[in-house]
Amino acid sequence: MDPVTHLSSGLMGGLAARRWFPEAKFLLPACVLAAWIPDADILFSDGPEFNLLYHRGVSTSFFGTLVLALALAGLYKLVSRRTPFVKIAALFYALTLTHVWLDLITTYGTQLLAPFSNHRFALDGAFIIDPVFTLTALALLATAGLGKKHRQTIALVGMAWFFAYPLANMAAGAILQNVYAHRLDARGVAHDHVRVTPDALSPRFWKVVVTAGPDYLLDTMDLFGDREPTAPLRVRRADKTFLRALGKQQSMFATYAWFTLWPYVEETDTPEGRTLVFRDLRFASTNPVMTWYYDGKRLPFTLVAHLDHTGRLTAWSYEGGISALADAGEPPQ
Fold first, then answer.
1. Where are the transmembrane segments (predicted)?
2. Has residue 89 been placed in a domain?
């Protein structure tokens, strides 16, 4: 989730808890720091592959956030000595876990069990930047700031909002998923699986990813008047086994196979061999807003492989996303 939402959850949590910490000094800035600190892993970036492997890794896991909360509580005791350590540590842990939740509800997901498992968990609760979600939270914050009499009550409502909105989206997505599957059945379109997730400007736009044999179908549902396209975008599914095989020549490809959810590939023959462009449908969209934004631009998390006629990797390049360096890559050794 975007930094503004994370920071607002910390401020909201601090306002909600303030009455129970009358002795605490600088509680609000400490809570804002607690809500942000799981993202501190971005300060240790060491290239695109490192970011894919470790961003939203141990620092946004149940174990990592506990360590961060305890460390932050220890430092906070130096500032506010009268505040009980266990009490403030529990608050900081709750706020770091709220950060984890806000990352978990996006399709990017997070490694909840790191460092014991690198499995990436993800829910379909919100797009990574959701104006309705964030602006409502900011409005509640402003209301809490102005209304001293009911500040804690409003702040508690605000904290509930961070959970209620994504849960409502998940329920809506499940309904839309059934609607779209029935639509495919009615048109006689063979498919294996349908997944509907919030897209940019949700809850208006929803991304639809259909697994159909060797292909994916990418579509958009518009709740303000769904203009169903004649045919969804059809792309060829990438073979993760093949990506892992390329990973024996350059580890980035094995990492990409692990990271991607719906990888697809475009192949072009060249005089030297062939060029393969790998992307992930998590970061693609037929939503009119996203189509306009990315017009003429390369999609984030794009990995390009140049192979010779024997299948040997001769060069590669990578277009990073929000959490990675752009256009990073090097030829294999």
1. 57-76, 88-109, 121-142, 154-176
2. yes
- In DSSP terms, 97 is beta-bridged to none
Q: Token match 């639509």: residue?
A: 183
Residue whose tokens read 């939740």 = 101
56 secondary structure, DSSP code: T
**In terms of domains, do 119 and 21 share one?**
yes
Q: Looking at residue 328, what is its pLDDT?
A: 36
* Residue 218 bridge partners (DSSP): 209, 233
- State the pairing for strand pair 263-270/193-198: unpaired
**What pLDDT score was predicted for residue 226?**
65
Instruction: Give the C-alpha separation, 193 to 216, whole Å.
Output: 10
Residue 152 burial class via C-beta count within 10 angstroms: exposed 0-12, middle 13-18, buried 19 and up: middle
pLDDT digits (tens, 9 = 90+) for 58-70: 999 999 999 999 9
Do residues 166 and 123 make contact, with C-beta atoms less than 8 angstroms apart?
yes
Tokens of 246: 């390329």
Q: Which domain, by its residues, includes 248?
A: 238-319
What pLDDT is attached to residue 322?
Answer: 38
* Residue 127 CB partners (closer than 8 Å, separation 6+): 106, 198, 199, 200, 201, 202
Say if residue 18 is in the same domain as residue 109.
Answer: yes
Residues 196, 281 within the same domain:
no
Lookup: tokens for 69: 């909360």
Q: Which H/E stretch holds residue 315?
A: strand 313-319
**Is residue 143 in some structural domain?**
no
